[in-house]
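ok so for the tutorial part 2 we go from a plain amino acid sequence to predicted structure tokens. step 1 is just haveing the sequence, like this:
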Amino acid sequence: MRLTADDGDRLWVSTARGIGWREVFVASGALLGFALSPDGATVAVGVPGDGVWVAPVSGLLGDAGAPGAFVRASALDARCLAWSDAGLYACAHEPSAGFAIGLSTDQGRSFVPLLRARDLSPEACAAGTSTGSTCAAVWPGVQAALGQEVDAGADAAADAGTRISSPPPATNRRACGCGAVRNEGMGGSVASLVVLVAFALRRRTR
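step 2 — the prediction. this is what the tokens look like for a chain of 206 residues:
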């Protein structure tokens, strides 16, 4: 159970089905990430500005408590965590971490970038389509939200329209949509992220 506090969030554990609780971790700030390994043996927490911490679940149980059970695995500025058979996923502060989403296969000690928001770009959409017309106007705002460089003034919208209406390489061609093209440097296709951000930005401007 996570408890929020002005001087740092707390993580508590119960071994009696919620009847009694014991404090097992005190964060230096907001405790935004929490993940349990698929085998249930290890728990990881993420604290922006203080890194990723891991502990064996066995060290959090029993009458002795758990002070010192958590060990700082890395300094990654983690904003969320999720654990699967592939490894420990983390969303991070891209300006400091160098990526938005990464994957660790060594329990948080190191991360391989999976997604960099600054590398996203729209799919090709004909200017005469509703999607192509909408994206040209929205894309500069999406660029700013992603931390990408945006051209000033009218040139930004014109530049966005050029990118959207120009056809992508044949290997990347998909149905016209305000999504994201394949980014070979990320090892896969990042779909739908840009359209979701664009939709949110449009709602905020209404």
